[in-house]
Amino acid sequence: MSVPTSLELSDSRDVDSIPRAVSALSASMVSRDWEYARHQHRKAQLLYSVRGVLNCETEEGVWIVPPQCAVWIPGGLAHSSRGAGRTECYCLFVEPGAAADLPQSCCTLAVSPLLRELLLKAAEFPELYPSGGREERLIATLLDELVVAPVEDLHLPMPRDPRLRRLAEQLLAEPSDKTSMADWASRIGMSERNMSRLLLQEIGLSFGRWRRQLHVILSLQRLTRGDSVQTVALELGYENASGFVTMFRKAVGKPPARYLAERSGHSEPKLNVPTITLSEYIV
């Protein structure tokens, strides 16, 4: 089943009007790449990746969702989303106030085996599942697991200052650029000291840590797509694969091959549930 690469809002189904605290659905994408323009839901949304890398972008930054992770998007937050290559995912829409202590801001979450199975089971439920029954009890357990899901550090914050935003966009377009911080400051019309101070103030990261986070995010997209470590290392400006692997391990705590293997070791869901295309529900 293929889907269009763009989406008309008028074609989407209104998940915000479903009179249940939580609604879950599955979605498959077989197109090479897809992207949905900025939009928002009244309900909060969890987007869980079974296969492929998903991206969620807001005004504040970019969140990456590798397999077996999910991105949490609070209700009312404008966002765009896209996938690289073939993707399979599950979507959860949650009413505001459905559970205490749910995340208040956008974040990437690690999905435990229990939370994964609860998500897959919830996707089997009819849209108007009975209130007060086993479905509702399972949903309550799902929310409990969601509250304690650990946050993954897979966020690329984006500055608001126009000069820093220009810097960020240029590095996104040319991630292999090795220009020094001093030269970048000169390019955007700032002193190195002011640039460093403003970066810390706006995104909480130094220039070096921000660029390293950018490389982690871009490398996960490309490695999941099937590119080799050597190819990705050269594309990102590293002289060899060893330097790239060292950077990746420092950033996420393990080398890329191990990181991805741990997220692809789950069997794919074999549930007899209807599958929709993402054009039915704005992601």
Evaluate the radius of gyration. 20 Å
Question: What is the number of helical segments per DSSP (H or I, 4+ residues)?
Answer: 9
Number of strands: 9
State the name of the first-level CATH class of the largest domain. Answer: Mainly Beta
Low-pLDDT segments: 1-12, 266-282
Summarize the topology:
Layout: E1 22-29, E2 33-39, E3 44-58, E4 61-65, E5 69-73, E6 79-94, E7 107-110, H1 113-122, H2 134-147, E8 151-152, E9 155-157, H3 162-173, H4 181-187, H5 192-203, H6 207-225, H7 229-235, H8 241-252, H9 256-264
Antiparallel strand pairs: 1-6, 2-6, 3-4, 3-5, 3-6, 4-9, 5-7, 7-8
Helix pairs in contact: 1-2, 6-8, 7-8
Describe the structure in your own words.
The protein is 36% helix and 23% strand. The chain has 283 residues and is α+β, with helices and mostly antiparallel strands. The protein folds into two domains: 9-152, Jelly Rolls; 160-264, Homeodomain-like (Arc Repressor Mutant, subunit A, Orthogonal Bundle), CATH 1.10.10.60. Strands 1, 2, 3, 4, 5, 6, 7, 8 and 9 form a nine-stranded antiparallel beta sheet that branches. β3 (44-58) and β4 form a beta hairpin. The two termini are 17 Å apart.
Give a quick precis of the structure.
By secondary structure, this protein is an alpha+beta fold. The chain has helices at about 115-120, 135-145, 160-175, 180-185, 190-205, 205-225, 230-235, 240-250, 255-265; strands at about 20-30, 35-40, 45-60, 60-65, 70-75, 80-95, 105-110, 150, 155. It is globular, with a radius of gyration of 20 Å.
